[in-house]
Amino acid sequence: MRPVLLVAGALTALFFLSLALGAGRLGTGSDAVWLLAVSRLPRTAAAMLAGAGLAVAGVIMQMLARNRFVEPATVGTGQAAGLGLVAVALLAPGAPLWFRMLVAMASALLATAGFLALVRRLPFRDPLLVPLTGIVYGGILAAVTGFIAYENDLLQYIDIWMNGEFSGVMLGRYEFLWLAGAATLVAYAFANRFTIAGMGEEMSLSLGLSYGQVMALGLAIVSVVTAVTVVTVGMLPFVGLVVPNIASQLRGDHLRRSLPLLASAGAGLVLTCDILGRIIWYPYEIPVGTILGVIGAAVFIWMLQGRRADAG
Amino acid sequence: MIRCQNLTFSAGGKRILDAVTADAPPGRITALVGPNGAGKSTLLGLMGRLKEPERGQVMLGAEDAAGIPRPIFARRLTALRQATRITPRLTVCDLVGFGRYPHNPGHLTKEDQRIVEACMTDMALDDLADRQIDTLSGGQQQRALIAMVLAQETEILLLDEPLNNLDLSHARRVMNNLSARSRAGRTIVTVLHDLTIAARFADHVVALKDGRVHAEGSPDEVFTPEVLRELYGAEVEVHRINGKPVILPI
């Protein structure tokens, strides 16, 4: 069976499972409809949108950096979004959500552009040096954020978005995530350009592509997806790393062909982890970020060992 | 016709090209030769607008190349760099298909597909069409990249050491194919290290040394023991077989 059909089928099953699961019992009649509309449906949609968006943001990041082992959560994009949020909390405490979102996007964009500029200047072509640089770079941003937050009694505030979870998702409090869905569609529309950009600047120029414009568009997509995810549900690690690498194995990197599979697999992974988080310790919950951390890290280590040779 | 006028380029404080003026005649194969570090690849990069010159310009006929919008430029000229590394996992067929991008950025049409298949056949890639690039040998990858730039169907082709990693049979295939294309009116500029191959296939030779044009002319004019001694600092014998120079190191 074609992988995309398999994933689509699994995704449908997960969707209904997610709707059926929760601490409260899903009765019948208008109460059930209310519960579905206000809590379960938004939560399910949020998990799917964030998962699809992060998987796509991950593959675009990998094309722009020309390295398979980077993703927004490990190269400072997510950390910078958090830094932006802390800055708003200090400088403009009462700012509305859209303003916080905008600042998070802007700081994510700046930091990601900074990372790519840094990577271009790396003296060595060792593919593993790129993700390492990203981890150090992201670590510095996180440390600065942590320090500022500590000094200003905001540690609890940053805790909320450091570890993603969906238990707070309700109607009226997750809608920004549809922007991540929209960004995914934009990425699909420009898929060929991102694939060509993945072949490098000179190849892009030789094919008549404005490399700078593709870079800018890619950065915008990565930043929007990361910022809306961090602001609404918190950081979800490894989705952007693991999903594109597995999709690449199955389907190659012709993005016009692999993006549908990639987006559905991302949605499926996050939804699965959220469902696991609701089941394992029922009726309590384990944050999806924790579950993703465990599963993602295991898969990542396996990837590093098995595919070291063609990392770059 | 592609004409370089006074091209000057520096990198890292070092002058790579110094006022290079050279021609590549239309419908001919021009070979760029010279010792390592002479500036051949840089010159090719400037001709293909992959880099910006510090001074000077590249003319396509009477037009300044820098004034042509990139998407249109890519339909007229293509440049293949040496040792190009393709990071994304693509099949040979997909990679060659991207050669059609300047003409058609969306799905490939029937006509595009016909061109892609013809170019794969030209490079003897039919059996490898569905293989992933990263599973191929260096020579097979090189042929796939050449097929890709051929599929771009430009009037001008710039190729940096296209014979890298190719065995004799495939090197011959590539050069014969380029010859056929030049006879059909396309202008080809290629960096070549094998001077006997350059003498056999090129109509025009530009020899670079230390960022300057050391000699320019027909293979007969450039490939003499005296010029080659000055160019490479190496002693060679030049013989003639079927009227073409054959260069043997002593």
From TrEMBL, chain A:
<feature type="transmembrane region" description="Helical">
    <location>
        <begin position="128"/>
        <end position="150"/>
    </location>
</feature>
<feature type="transmembrane region" description="Helical">
    <location>
        <begin position="98"/>
        <end position="119"/>
    </location>
</feature>
<dbReference type="Pfam" id="PF01032">
    <property type="entry name" value="FecCD"/>
</dbReference>
<dbReference type="GO" id="GO:0022857">
    <property type="term" value="F:transmembrane transporter activity"/>
</dbReference>
<protein>
    <submittedName>
        <fullName>Iron complex transport system permease protein</fullName>
    </submittedName>
</protein>
<feature type="transmembrane region" description="Helical">
    <location>
        <begin position="203"/>
        <end position="222"/>
    </location>
</feature>
<feature type="transmembrane region" description="Helical">
    <location>
        <begin position="259"/>
        <end position="280"/>
    </location>
</feature>
<keyword id="KW-0813">Transport</keyword>
<feature type="transmembrane region" description="Helical">
    <location>
        <begin position="170"/>
        <end position="191"/>
    </location>
</feature>
<keyword id="KW-0812">Transmembrane</keyword>
<feature type="transmembrane region" description="Helical">
    <location>
        <begin position="46"/>
        <end position="65"/>
    </location>
</feature>
<dbReference type="InterPro" id="IPR037294">
    <property type="entry name" value="ABC_BtuC-like"/>
</dbReference>
<feature type="transmembrane region" description="Helical">
    <location>
        <begin position="72"/>
        <end position="92"/>
    </location>
</feature>
<comment type="similarity">
    <text>Belongs to the binding-protein-dependent transport system permease family. FecCD subfamily.</text>
</comment>
<feature type="transmembrane region" description="Helical">
    <location>
        <begin position="228"/>
        <end position="247"/>
    </location>
</feature>
<dbReference type="GO" id="GO:0033214">
    <property type="term" value="P:siderophore-iron import into cell"/>
</dbReference>
<feature type="transmembrane region" description="Helical">
    <location>
        <begin position="286"/>
        <end position="304"/>
    </location>
</feature>
<dbReference type="InterPro" id="IPR000522">
    <property type="entry name" value="ABC_transptr_permease_BtuC"/>
</dbReference>
<keyword id="KW-1133">Transmembrane helix</keyword>
<keyword id="KW-1003">Cell membrane</keyword>
<keyword id="KW-0472">Membrane</keyword>
<dbReference type="GO" id="GO:0005886">
    <property type="term" value="C:plasma membrane"/>
</dbReference>
From TrEMBL, chain B:
<dbReference type="GO" id="GO:0016887">
    <property type="term" value="F:ATP hydrolysis activity"/>
</dbReference>
<keyword id="KW-0067">ATP-binding</keyword>
<dbReference type="GO" id="GO:0006826">
    <property type="term" value="P:iron ion transport"/>
</dbReference>
<comment type="similarity">
    <text>Belongs to the ABC transporter superfamily.</text>
</comment>
<dbReference type="Pfam" id="PF00005">
    <property type="entry name" value="ABC_tran"/>
</dbReference>
<keyword id="KW-0406">Ion transport</keyword>
<dbReference type="InterPro" id="IPR003439">
    <property type="entry name" value="ABC_transporter-like_ATP-bd"/>
</dbReference>
<feature type="domain" description="ABC transporter">
    <location>
        <begin position="2"/>
        <end position="235"/>
    </location>
</feature>
<dbReference type="InterPro" id="IPR051535">
    <property type="entry name" value="Siderophore_ABC-ATPase"/>
</dbReference>
<keyword id="KW-0472">Membrane</keyword>
<keyword id="KW-0813">Transport</keyword>
<dbReference type="GO" id="GO:0005524">
    <property type="term" value="F:ATP binding"/>
</dbReference>
<keyword id="KW-0410">Iron transport</keyword>
<keyword id="KW-1003">Cell membrane</keyword>
<dbReference type="InterPro" id="IPR027417">
    <property type="entry name" value="P-loop_NTPase"/>
</dbReference>
<dbReference type="InterPro" id="IPR017871">
    <property type="entry name" value="ABC_transporter-like_CS"/>
</dbReference>
<protein>
    <submittedName>
        <fullName>Iron complex transport system ATP-binding protein</fullName>
    </submittedName>
</protein>
<keyword id="KW-0547">Nucleotide-binding</keyword>
<dbReference type="GO" id="GO:0005886">
    <property type="term" value="C:plasma membrane"/>
</dbReference>
<keyword id="KW-0408">Iron</keyword>
<dbReference type="InterPro" id="IPR003593">
    <property type="entry name" value="AAA+_ATPase"/>
</dbReference>
